[in-house]
Amino acid sequence: MSNEIEILKKGDLGRKKEKKVFFPKGRIIDDKAEKEILLLLKNKSKARDMLIENLHLIQDKFKCLHAEHLTALATIMKMPLAEVYEVASFYAHFDIIDDDTKPAGITIRVCDTVTCEMMGAKKLLNNLKKKYKNKNIRVLPAPCMGRCDTAPVLEIGHRHVDYADKEKVEEIINKKDFSPKINKYVDFNTYRKNGGYNFLKKCLSNKISPNQIIKTIEDSNLKGLGGAGFPTGLKWKLTRKEPAPRLMAVNADEGEPGTFKDRFCMETDPHRLLEGTLIAAWVVEAKICYIYLRDEYPFINKILKTEIEKIEKEGLTKHCKLIIRRGAGAYICGEESAMLESIEGKRGYPRHKPPFPVQEGLFGKPTLCNCVETLFWIRDILEKGAKWFSNFGKNGGSGFRFYSVSGRVNDPGIKKAPSGITVQELIDEYCGGIQKGHTFKGYLPGGASGGILPFSLANIPLDFGKELDKKGCFVGSGAIVIFSNQDSMKDIAINLLKFFEDESCGQCTPCRVGTEKAVKLLKNKKWDKKLLDDLSKVMIDSSICGLGQAAPNPINCVLKYFQNDIN
Amino acid sequence: MKDINFILNSKKVTAKEGETIWQVAKRHGDLIPHLCYEPKPGYRPDGNCRACMVEVEGERVLVASCIGKPTEGMKVNTKSNRAALSRKLVFELLVADQPKRSVARDKNSKFWIWADKLNVDKSRFPKKTSLPEPDTSHSAMEVNLDACIHCNLCVRACREVQVNDVIGMANRGSNAKIVFDFDDPMGDSTCVACGECVQACPTGALMPASVMNEKHISDTKVDKKVESLCPYCGVGCQITYNIKDDKIAWIDGADGPANHNRLCVKGRFGYDYVTNPERLTEPLIRKTNVSKDPTKIFDPKNPLKYFREASWKEALDFAGSGLKKIRETHGSNSLAGFGSAKGSNEEAYLFQKLVRTGFGNNNVDHCTRLCHASSVAALLETIGSGAVSNPFYDCENSDVIIIIGANPTENHPVAATFFKNAAKNGSKLIVIDPRKSSLNKYAFKNLNFRPGTDVALLNSIMNVIIEEKLYDQQYIKGYTEGFEELKENVKKFPPEKMEKVTSIQAETVKTIARTYAKAKSAIIFWGMGISQHVHGTDNARALIALSLICGQIGRPGTGLHPLRGQNNVQGASDAGLIPMMFPDYFSVSDGKNRKKLEKLWKSNLDPEPGLTIVEIMYGMIDGSIKGMYIMGENPAMSDPDTKHAREGLAKLEHLVVQDLFLTETATFADVILPSSAAPEKDGSFTNTNRQVQMGRKAIPLPGNTKQDLWIINEIGKRLGLEWNYKYPKDVFPEMAETMPSIKGMTWERLEKESSVVYPVKDVNKPGEEVIFSNGFDTKNKRGKIVPTKLIPPNEVPNNKFPMILMTGRLLEHWHTGSMTRRSKVLDAIEPIATAHFNPKQLKKQGIDAGDKVKIETRRGKVEVRVRLDRNVPNNVIFFPFTFKEAPANVLTNPELDPFGKIPEFKYCAAKMKKLDKSSSISYK
């Protein structure tokens, strides 16, 4: 038994320092912080799946997450502190800071992923860091913002800056307008005038059957354009076979470096996505559909909110409620099961499969997951017929898709081109050729994870499976990045692996430890081929999800095709 | 159940439905490496470490065998080069960031054992640049995250197994980190130190602090492991003592039916009281010049100031002759004995036999009188059995779980984990208590009702059930009596009217009533909040009536379960350590049984019930009780109105105390007999589930201490009894002969099975876990429904004493603290006496955390420091009775429940005043 006075005099009683024993264990709920959070969450759901949404509310309001606010939030949401903390600390867009620290006034995020780095992001980042040191402006590197065609890019608050330089940044900071900028797009009236939602109405009035729709989609040979290429019609059919209630989730979290097609879809013609979504939901009888939107697209959030409100008023969503859920800065949440976790308000940990989302998805219910672009083409396919779509293919491919092209070409951007097109055709026919002063050296056929190919293999069809597969590569989301003789493939590989290291969820050993070790090994002057080969094997064979399985692709490709760059 | 045929390493094998590849492989002698997978109850395979990868034909990638399930015809190769390489590389990746093999945090850990098997002792991969520093902020455990492999087992241990929800995996990727709450030091977090994470950790990143040296390296080699029982609460956790040099090095949870390897902070870390320097190791006789002053409690550090050492012969002769003399001069009724609910069944049996045959009366009682006597009274009256109807873990089969007047996360922590598991799996948890608790997070409904209004609340629930005809007509007809009287009685308790009394809204009461009555299966748990009232028996009657009218008893997932307090309070009561009953609850007035016992015990027996604890206290004061034998109880701390109790003890002519320490009670002893602690003895103990379990000796007796059983036997001999009980196994058969409930139990069976539930009729068959499936133990086999009236607490607040005082316990401290305050770890977590208040109330009075206040009731005053606790309602003082420097029981009301004779610990009027500044210590 200890002596009370001795204990008290020692004064080392922990966090609440001297007073620890005079409170219950752990952090103490601060009355003021509790009131602030209660006010913020007034009329808001406190259900478990709202955690990320509620964290956003706090982050937006206070520009950070103070521990005292998180303590209050946990109490109010009846959640353990640890669970709140692990979610908040998982996502890059949440800033947890000490109670007595002030948040940064302005945050500048400079994209340092592959295309932006090629276009000078590193220098820009360092310059800005220097310039705004001690000015209550925080300059952070950030992963792909989905505007690689205008690299380098950055984000100040929620305002994105294309072809960014110091001057542009200064101008915006002086103007103090950090709200998202919205470009002109096809709004509800225009879309409707041009025959939009007619097909949905046909569905809703049962003038067509779900099976007929599924048949058309199956015949069109439309595949999942998020990257996996799973036949869309079949997915819908499988979903319908599962017991009700069923749910739906739209994957609007394209984060694959080099990819910006979904942004283009939503930013220019949002109703085409919404109609496709509502048709799909009608087919699988999903009463709720979550649109999981990456937090890098705040302008689209605004567009979707505005436009969904309009179609709700028009009674077009009676069969299915559309709910937008904000991502919070995590590439892994583009992986569909990680996305489902995130929609449930958790960390983006990919799930083990089986069961697949179609069987056991959101909240354990059968869930249809489609990406934005896949749904974007639904209306056209249904209106114009399966054949119309499938006839578009090239070099054995079927249909068309949006390729996001960036890097050393004259005219980067979104290219609607036949599936199966080769990179050479894409460069020559769609992108105005290689930039002056550059020689075509190699390319990413499918973003950061799809591997790297040399110019000598520029005539392979950019399509799912097939020849790309044989080369250890894949087309995925159709993000094509073109490299020239001025790009070091070693640096490219390091950049890509660093990206994977930052974005690995950390769940499984091969990916968590493997990506970190890979970056270290790649930075060595001489690459240890045997060790890298071993590492690549365990990552490909034993990682839980596609991130870790694909992460060694750049390494293997450089070893295979770009020996000169590492010797 | 469908069998699945598949090919494992070219061999045809069969998997049972649900079996994983890993499990089937193990059955076939192929133990696949595993780190994040712990094949133990409660641990879900997570498949994250990737140490168990196997190759499946046709699959693009390897499959984690711990989660991969075979399908018909699948071809699995666990030994392919590809799989073997992957597994080895996983280890190589992990070893890269580990402390070197030679300075491993725990070189005997699962991680290193497997690494050795796979021949991985170093790594070709570069080491991480920064690794975490040791966290030694907790008194019980040490955290060295440089050994962490992020396997997530500790998170599952904390979140899914024990549901204490402290550990998380924060950040992501290679920055992923095990955190406590918000990345706080473990010792500053909400950690309740159950130690489940330590037990689960496969690397040595989380270790018991007791085995770590100053370089943060452990020594986990032990001489032997002994399977035994936790000595604290009624849950009855089985434990494994890890013994080195005849000392306890650390404790692990064992896979007992009540705990499945789980333990709480007391069970896992609170064992070192046995080696506390204050342990008495020689018999002591009071010095002749030392008077008995009820206001002076002796310093347990200096027993020789007040006592002199004596030989066992002298001490026993002195003890025995003193008792004998009183019996001879004042008659047998001037003697009484308090046995112990901490001792074994064999000790309890022998102790009550000593009082009944040696003293010649029934003045034998123990602390059940202070905890569940009213519950037992109600249960015996209504359903004819004083024990629980279903084990607590049966809640996994319950749709609805009501927990009323109990705070299991503090007082039955391991049972609470099963409640939380059930709630997480979808059972509706209804928590009813004036105080909030950490269970609330998991509850479907929380009813924080006004203290002392239990009967009003329960009757209003029954009012709704009867008004809305939600009761089980068929069950009532078939198995109960007294329903019509209840029906009439509850008319007086409409929820709308009771709202004013209980403060619970009528709508909530209706929801609870409907939820309970309509549930497929619903179980009720209760604790001292129900029993420790002057209307404690009525409270229990109302709960029993509720279950009877809804037919929520007699099936899995239903029933009534008063959560028993002490590790052997069930067994001590069963063995007859109560004044009105012989072993197995035969009334002392039951002539037939008494005759049988008289023959067996070769002694006449008193047909009159003896005195209960508080009655004995009054007897001491009025002089009718002159001599006492107290084994392992501490009435000078535990009894209500302590001042009075101490006065009584001081007046005794002869007091024999048998204990480990110079307790507050021993202050008044004429002779102290130093006895055995739990890890030093064999014996059977009965937990709250009616499971009789085997406690086994793990360490030798220290100094000149003796086995309790031997001491009782020796005292018996000195009272003229012809006894020769040497070991518990000598007592057990005789005890079993007096107890039909354990007919099918033998000492050998207990030794073999470690746990046997009663009633058990046949030595070859298991006992019955769920009882009353076909009527009750009453004469007509019917459950008696007893209507209850609204009786206010004995002492309600008024202007002079405006607050309500209730006592209770803390997670870390056991009762009067004689054991736990002598445990380093436990005392470090809760070192200071505090009374708990709602912060809002204190704010009004200008009182801050840590300030000293004076709490006063009609019986006395105590000075104590203040803890702010939102769980305590306004106008209530929650005061743990553990602290001798601030003994809460000085304040409590000794007024008794008329049936259970239990005092009203949970309610009395009090006032509180802040002491002036000079009294408060500057603790900065």
| Oligomerization status of the protein chains | heterodimer
Largest sheet of chain B: 7 strands, mixed
Instruction: Output mean pLDDT of chain B.
Output: 96
Strand order of the largest sheet of chain B: 14-13-27-26-25-15-16
β content of chain A, as a range?
5-15%
Number of strands of chain B: 39
Cα Rg of chain A: 25 Å
Q: What is the residue-mean pLDDT of chain A, rounded to a whole number?
A: 95
- Helix count of chain A equals 27
Which structural class do the helices and strands of chain B define? Answer: alpha/beta
Beta-strand content bin of chain B: 15-25%
Q: Tally of extended strands of chain A?
A: 15
Largest sheet of chain A: 5 strands, mixed
Q: How many angstroms does the end-to-end distance of chain A come to? A: 69 Å
Number of helices of chain B: 29
Instruction: Provide the helix percentage of chain B.
Output: 25-40%
Rg from alpha-carbon coordinates of chain B:
29 Å
Question: Order of strands across the biggest sheet of chain A?
Answer: 12-11-15-13-14
Amount of helix of chain A: 40-55%
Topology of this structure?
The complex is a heterodimer of chains A (567) and B (924).
Chain A: H1 4-10, H2 31-40, H3 51-62, E1 65-66, H4 67-76, H5 81-90, E2 96-97, E3 106-111, H6 114-118, H7 121-131, E4 137-142, E5 154-156, E6 159-161, H8 166-175, H9 188-193, H10 198-204, H11 210-220, H12 232-241, E7 246-252, H13 261-268, H14 270-284, E8 286-293, H15 298-313, E9 321-326, H16 336-343, E10 367-371, H17 372-376, H18 378-384, H19 386-390, E11 400-407, E12 413-418, H20 423-430, E13 440-444, E14 453-454, H21 466-470, E15 479-484, H22 489-503, H23 509-523, H24 529-542, H25 546-550, H26 553-561, H27 563-566
Parallel strand pairs in A: 1-2, 3-4, 7-8, 7-10, 8-9, 11-15
Antiparallel strand pairs in A: 3-5, 5-6, 11-12, 13-14, 13-15
Chain B: E1 4-8, E2 11-15, H1 21-27, E3 53-56, E4 63-64, E5 75-77, H2 81-96, H3 110-117, E6 141-143, H4 153-161, E7 167-170, E8 177-180, H5 196-200, E9 206-208, E10 224-229, E11 238-244, E12 247-253, H6 265-269, E13 284-286, E14 307-309, H7 312-330, E15 335-338, H8 345-359, E16 364-365, H9 368-371, H10 373-383, E17 400-404, H11 408-411, H12 413-424, E18 428-432, E19 445-447, H13 454-467, H14 473-479, E20 480-481, H15 483-490, H16 495-502, H17 506-518, E21 522-526, H18 528-531, H19 536-549, E22 559-562, H20 569-574, E23 581-582, E24 586-587, H21 591-601, H22 613-622, E25 627-631, H23 635-638, H24 642-651, E26 654-659, E27 671-674, E28 683-686, E29 691-695, H25 708-718, H26 728-738, H27 747-753, E30 755-757, E31 783-784, E32 803-808, H28 824-829, E33 834-837, H29 839-844, E34 852-857, E35 860-868, E36 876-880, E37 893-896, E38 903-904, E39 908-914
Parallel strand pairs in B: 1-5, 15-16, 15-25, 17-18, 17-21, 18-19, 20-31, 21-22, 25-26, 26-27, 32-36, 33-35
Antiparallel strand pairs in B: 1-2, 3-4, 3-5, 6-9, 7-8, 10-11, 11-12, 13-14, 13-27, 23-24, 28-29, 29-30, 32-39, 34-35, 34-39, 37-38
Helix pairs in contact in B: 7-25, 8-25, 8-26, 10-19, 13-16, 13-17, 13-19, 16-17, 22-24
